[in-house]
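Hi Y.,

Following your request, here is the sequence exactly as I used it, all 141 residues.
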Amino acid sequence: MDNPVDPTLMDLADGRLRLRGGRCAACDEIHFPVGTACPRCGGDDIRVEPLADEGVLWSWTVQRFPPPSPPYVPSAAEFTPFGLGYVELPGQVIVESLLTECDPARLHIGMPMRLVEFSVPTESGETAVTFAFTPWEGHAS
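Below is the corresponding structure, written out as tokens. Let me know if you'd prefer a different format.
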């Protein structure tokens, strides 16, 4: 695996990419990304724990124009549309994420999704790993 774009967001454990969530010791709220205080109650005893690597698509859209640079590295001429979505991790949190699919005919709210590594170019010309969710075809929700 390449270096993660942001090691505070994810870990590689047992050969699997996992997102790092924060659980508040005071109110048990789970949030992503991990912060120094709970967004629900303001508590500051936050424990890092791995988030689920599967969930369901809560909402989505297709990004049809290049994001600002930085952090987007490719030139506008190299841009290709990509999917963006919110994936609900059962009993945990809803995560905003890249989607590996951007064909509207292949995306629908409530479809099963699973976490995958996604390589992105960096300003140095190398690649780094971030996370994305991909449709989990054949998996019943």
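Residues 46 and 61 are 32 Å apart (CA to CA).

Thanks again,
Q.
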